[in-house]
């Protein structure tokens, strides 16, 4: 049984909600169905794990949801806020060293599985955008600012950066997979791991590699990729160009020169947009020229996702400096985004927006504040007086209404009789 199933934050059969914060309970409810199916996190010593992966993932989801600025910020909240304490601190307590060590050394395998399971679950609930185009996955890398002590994140002599390689499902608008390298890491080797057979990868010029193109085709993985304007090509067959469009070239070609020539033919489209000329190639023979150009235009959605994700979920505030910890935190950021997608879709039928995120944060804080309000005891006289004030439609009763030698009890009885 998952630890969430016995916590005050759990949702049982999607019916009961957390009395402290129903909003946050609804947000993390989909995790409950996934945690029991993940690879079990086993202790490396004779002592059982107290800060389990369930505590860990809930802490990281809260970290990104509330846009905490540091690990100390999160730990101070866990110390001062009973809600956060119940969320991430086990019964035996949680020390700083335990929290940072757990993020730096364990949980990445479970988090990878969680991202893939959450993406599949979201795709079953969301509406597919382009069913006639098949599975479309935009691939790109995004730089994550690092500190100079992170020597593994090589970028330049004066800067350190890591690079997140993400596969973004264009049909559902959600991230599916992610890999991490140093800032100068190549992007092309990750296409085979981020794409599944039958997927169509939407790629920019940085992914051009004729040898890999042939390998991807042999693996059953398709692509729509922008190539350089001076790329060598041999025209095998010209195809008709639709009139009244920005297209000016459409042909079946073979890319490469005598030393680096592709084995498989491709279909090349040339079009002009906003004053720029684009050359886009694909191995898919079932697409028209307009569809090829349209698919490549969808690649901008992954850039929009990167900008929103990094800005509003604060993935720049790293909790760890080693590769495992950075990967774990970025994966937790993807899990949080997927939870937001399902939450806003279920509640409002909308995509995530910063307006809705701020509204959700206000709801969580208000619910927690109300849940922990101190209870004031009211004596019988105050209760009767309050009832009289609610029953009477006249001006509010004040102590000036008291007659000489009249007590509050007699005042209440007199007003009831007069009413």
Description:
There is one protein chain. The chain contains 14 helices and nine strands. By secondary structure, it is α+β, with helices and mostly antiparallel strands. The chain has a nine-stranded mixed β-sheet, with helices on both faces. Mean pLDDT is 87; it is low at 1-18 and 393-400.
Helix-strand string: HHHHHHEEEHEHEEEEEHHHHHH
Low-confidence stretches: 1-18, 393-400
The fraction of residues in strands falls at 15-25%
Q: Structural class of the secondary structure composition?
A: alpha+beta
How many E strands?
Answer: 9
- As laid out across the biggest beta sheet, the strand order is 3-2-1-4-5-9-8-7-6
**Biggest sheet record:** 9 strands, mixed
Distance between the termini: 59 Å
The helix content is 40-55%
Topology readout:
Layout: H1 22-34, H2 53-65, H3 71-80, H4 82-88, H5 96-105, H6 108-125, E1 136-146, E2 160-169, E3 174-182, H7 191-194, E4 200-203, H8 210-218, E5 222-227, E6 233-238, E7 247-255, E8 266-273, E9 276-282, H9 289-297, H10 300-312, H11 323-347, H12 354-371, H13 380-391, H14 408-418
Parallel strand pairs: 1-4, 4-5
Antiparallel strand pairs: 1-2, 2-3, 5-9, 6-7, 7-8, 8-9
Give the gist of this structure.
The protein has 419 residues and is of the alpha+beta class. The chain has helices at 22-34, 53-65, 71-80, 82-88, 96-105, 108-125, 191-194, 210-218, 289-297, 300-312, 323-347, 354-371, 380-391, 408-418; strands at 136-146, 160-169, 174-182, 200-203, 222-227, 233-238, 247-255, 266-273, 276-282.
Which descriptors apply to this entry?
single chain; 14 helices; 419 residues; 17% strand; elongated; nine-stranded mixed beta sheet; 41% helix; disordered N terminus; alpha+beta
